[in-house]
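Protocol step 4 of 6: structure prediction from sequence.
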Amino acid sequence: MTITIDNAGRVVIPKEIRDRLNLFPGTELELALVEDEINLKASANIPALREKRGMLVFDGYSKSDIDVAEFINQQRDRQAASVSQ
């Protein structure tokens, strides 16, 4: 696949690759120069959960230390406590 650098030095990662790797605006990438190659790697702190239209959604499999089931249960408990007050 060939891509082009624009006048500002930017490179666009094609949508099909962004979707496959769960890359979204704000995702941090690590850049490494290895001999004569440029390597981009998604940082290890990509959240598996993110807010979308006011709700937390699972955003695919990514490197995260969060226990998704525990996090969801905590959110449910908080919401239940706020409703019962």
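Step 5 (inspection) to follow. The mean pLDDT is 82.
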